[in-house]
Structures are given as C-alpha cells and as structure tokens.
Amino acid sequence: MAFKTGLPLDDALRNAINTAVACKNQHQQFAQKLAGSISANDALQFANFLRTIIPQLQQCAAVPGIQAFAQAQYSDSTYDVGTEFTTMMSAIQSVLTWLENNIPSNAVSVTSAKVTYSSFTPAQTAPLLTLVNDVVATIN
Questions:
Q1: In this structure, are strands 38-39 and 119-120 parallel, antiparallel, or unpaired?
Q2: Can you tell me the distance from the alpha carbon of 50 to that of 47, in angstroms, rounded to the nearest whole number?
Q3: What letter would DSSP give residue 38?
Q4: H-helix or E-strand containing 129?
Q5: Of 64, 41, 37, nearest to 120 (Cα)?
Q6: What three-state secondary structure class fits 98?
Q7: From CA 123, how far away is CA 52, in angstroms rounded?
Q8: Can you name the residues that pair with 97 across neighbouring β-strands?
Q9: Local structure of 140: helix, strand or coil
Q10: What per-residue confidence (pLDDT) applies to 8?
Q11: Nearest-angstrom CA–CA distance, 39 and 32
Q12: Fewer CB near the last or first residue (10 Å), C or N of the chain?
C-alpha cells in the first residue's frame, strides 16, 4: 500500500471551499452580464456550469464527518457551517431552476448549419439577477 497524501476530511473541506469560491466568482461575473442583454448561449453555459458544480459540492458534503470537521475549523460557536452550506446550495439550485424554467427550448435554433440564440433583456432576467446576487451573498 502506498503512503496516503491526503486526509479525506481535510481534502473534502478544501474542495468545498475552493468550489464555493469559484462558484461565487462565476456568479459575480454572470451578474455583470445580466446588467445587459444575455444570449441563450450565456444562460445555457451558466446552467451547465451549475450542473457541474452542484454535484461537486454534494460530493464534498457527503464525506462522513465533514460537517463536524468543518465546524471545528472555525472559532465561532455561533457559526453553523451545516446551515450555511444548505443555504448556499439552495440558492445555487434556485438559479439553476430559474434557468431551466425560463429559458425556452426554442431559444436556440439551427438553420442551414447556423446556430442562432435568442437574447434576453435585463427586464426579462431581473428575477434571475436577484437569485444570482442571493448566491453571492451566501458565500463569504
């Protein structure tokens, strides 16, 4: 057997933190895009990003003992890492759900091998911007 170079709990917490930081950064960038019109391609790419990041965070959360380990890393008895993680995950899922429910299937069309994407104005995506900002607020 080879020498193990990682500790499952430490690795899982590090992965969760790094993934959450990347998630926050992507949401901040997407919020900037939402200040103007976005294309269906922008929305679909962001939805695909979320479909990748959600299982990564869920995998970290599924490591046995991770919540107690993560809680022990913070010197704040009022901070509940489990509650905050659940709040973040719910906010992320809300963004994905909005995209799935509000980007119509005909937002992308192909004619003569040319792809055309519908565009969405800030007025149309205002509820999405609120949800995106909610995610940013859940990650410190």
A1: antiparallel
A2: 5
A3: E
A4: helix 122-137
A5: 37
A6: helix
A7: 28
A8: none
A9: coil
A10: 86
A11: 14
A12: N
Structure tokens at 100: 């799935």
- Spatial separation of the C-alpha atoms in residues 96 and 45, rounded to whole Å: 11
pLDDT tens digits along 99-124:
999 999 889 999 999 999 999 999 99
Two structure tokens written together for 77:
């008895």
**How many secondary structure helices (H) and strands (E) does the chain include?**
5, 4
CA angle 43, 45, 50 (to 5 degrees): 95
Contact 132, 92 (CB under 8 A): no
d(CA 80, CA 104): 38
d(CA 14, CA 63): 12
CA distance 56 to 26: 15
